[in-house]
Amino acid sequence: MNAKQRHTRLIKDEAKRLGFLSCGISKAEFLEEEAPRLERWLKNNAHGEMRYMENHFDKRLDPTLLVEGSKSVVSLLLNYYPNEFQTEDSYKLSKYAYGTDYHYVIKDKLKELLHTIQTEIGEVNGRAFVDSAPVLDKAWAAKSGLGWIGKHSNLLTQKVGSFYFIAELIIDLELDYDTPVTDHCGSCTACIDACPTEAITEPYVVDGSKCISYFTIELKENIPTDYKNQFDDWMFGCDICQDVCPWNRFSKGHNEPLFNPHPELLSMTKKDWEEITEDTFKKVFKKSAVKRTKFSGLQRNINFLKD
């Protein structure tokens, strides 16, 4: 086993020990196929008010601009599929937001992974990314053979579906690279047919400005009244396109204690949500991604569903 193989094995073993679902590695280089796609998506204003998507266009496509001298993009998946779910009579919360904000959970694991690489291998420079920088997570994960991009534009894996977070470590170390897997969506259009706001405008293309997740999380002003009664009770995020995907029959509950929800969250009914106080909000969502909408944002979403 040469040094490159040894280092690759070490990184994948350590990723597994840290609880990641899988780890794939690709060469840090310009994402040629993604460039025209991203340009077209932005030109069509599919990012709505998410103006940050327009920034750092070059960096999104070229990891060597993010980490000088980078050679490898290590992509990692972390399962968040819950073991228990909200009660039926409830406004719905995207499953990824049940527990502690994933940014913190994953950042800590990535720091530990980088520390191990530096301890075991030597001087390796790198940066950890958890969807908080201009990195095209799904494109790198697909390039690294961790799955294929489905028609709903999420990464899909045959054995585990799509309920997982994607993160990267971009490092200046040459490794053995994985190859992409084939697309297994076939003629299925379940996600396209099920989207109540018709946000999946064509296979593999999502108009972010029509997505329920966008309206309930990213949009800061009032939700357009044209979308009244189209949210299917989703008050933060939306999982419809994932819930109907046949590959998600294979989803298994996560084993990350930090992703377990606050005990009160699962039993809250529509009435409880309608009467939620700021104190309860702070208690239930103490370290949650839901804090992004703030109390007033969640109230706005609930009122939009309720009226």
Automatic annotation (TrEMBL):
PROSITE patterns: 4FE4S_FER_1, 4FE4S_FER_2
Keyword Membrane attributed: no
Keywords: 4Fe-4S, Cobalamin, Cobalt, Cytoplasm, Iron, Iron-sulfur, Metal-binding, Oxidoreductase, Queuosine biosynthesis, tRNA processing
SUPFAM superfamilies documented for this protein: alpha-helical ferredoxin (SSF46548)
Gene Ontology MF annotations: epoxyqueuosine reductase activity
Cofactor details (free text): Binds 2 [4Fe-4S] clusters per monomer.
Active site (UniProt): D131 (proton donor)
Pfam families hit by this protein: Fer4_16, QueG_DUF1730
Binding residue positions for [4Fe-4S] cluster 2: C195, C211, C238, C241
Positions annotated to bind [4Fe-4S] cluster 1: C185, C188, C191, C245
Segment forming the signal sequence: none
Domain of life: Bacteria
Protein known as: Epoxyqueuosine reductase
Origin species: Winogradskyella maritima
Lineage: Bacteria, Pseudomonadati, Bacteroidota, Flavobacteriia, Flavobacteriales
